[in-house]
Amino acid sequence: MKTFGIIHIILFFVLMLVYQCVSAQDYVVNVKGDTLTGSIKPLTFGPDKKVQVTSADKKKTVVPIFQVKAYSLKGEVYQPVKGPSGYTFMKLLKAGYVSLYAFQLENQTSYDGRFLLKRDGTGTEVPNLSFKKITSRFFNDCPAIESKIEDGTYGKKDLDTIIDEYNACINGRTAEHTQVIATRTEQVKKINSWDILENKVKGLTEFEGKTNALEMIGEIKNKISKSEKVPNFLINGLKGTLTQPELQADLETALKELN
User: Which domain of life is it from (predicted)?
Assistant: First the structure.
């Protein structure tokens, strides 16, 4: 029984070791979306930066920087970014609409430089000097963040907070914009049904209440465009006026859009 227990303990630790090795496996993702796994060696010195991948069968593949989407080394993710000295591999520290990267300063092997990159391609090095001037300008599309940097509420030590609040600002604005588009799309869809009914009414020969019916349709469309509730008296008045059989299907379709 004792031998049986020891064997199981050993097997458990072996499996855990294998799992950690597999889960922590390094890789390169190229611009086509292909993933190459193996031993990763960044070749970051000189003008032609690249990544070398050595597979399990010792086959070596060199991927130039402009063909690399990202690579992972020892659990850290690196991406090609156009920095102060041209394109280089930078370590991703914080991801979002604006991402924070670490990069190698000139003639250094450590990643002590800091670089901010927006999703639209706008980027700037995080400076030691003129931090307030440069970063407030960089974040000026969110006035609340810009103001806090300018008045000294936030300094360089607050960079993580600045990034988090800025990304929240952009995400909120994007959500609002998406909602506006969705609302406008829904309004257009509703109004289209009323446009069809309106044109059908206009195409009919004169009948008692035609002018009033067109006025009511126009008022309903106006309410829809302003996202206002259409009062029941308008709906009931229109139903009582448009009694022609050929209008009932279009009237019913238009009324359903109000629900």
Answer: Bacteria
Which residues make Cβ contacts (< 8 Å) with residue 41, sequence separation at least 6? 51, 52, 53, 54
Low-confidence residues in the chain, pLDDT < 50 = 1-4, 8-23
* pTM reported for the whole predicted model: 0.62
Q: How far apart are CA 126 and CA 113, in angstroms?
A: 8
E strand or H helix at 118, and its extent? strand 113-118
From CA 220, how far away is CA 80, in angstroms rounded? Answer: 55
What count of other Cβ atoms lies within 10 Å of the Cβ of residue 81?
19
61, 68 Cβ separation under 8 angstroms: no
Q: Exposed, middle or buried by CB within 10 Å (0-12, 13-18, 19+), for 99?
A: buried
pLDDT, one tens digit per residue, over 72-126 is: 999 999 999 998 888 999 999 999 999 999 999 888 889 999 999 999 999 999 9
User: Into how many domains does the chain fold?
Assistant: 1
In a domain, 193, yes or no: yes
Distance CA 223, CA 226 (A): 5
Distance, in Å, from the CA atom of 2 to the CA atom of 141, rounded to the nearest integer, reads 68
Specify the residue for token string 């450590």.
Answer: 110
Determine, yes or no, domain membership for 17. Answer: no
Domain around 248: 183-256
In a domain, 251, yes or no: yes
Q: Residue 220 and residue 133: Cα distance in Å, rounded?
A: 52
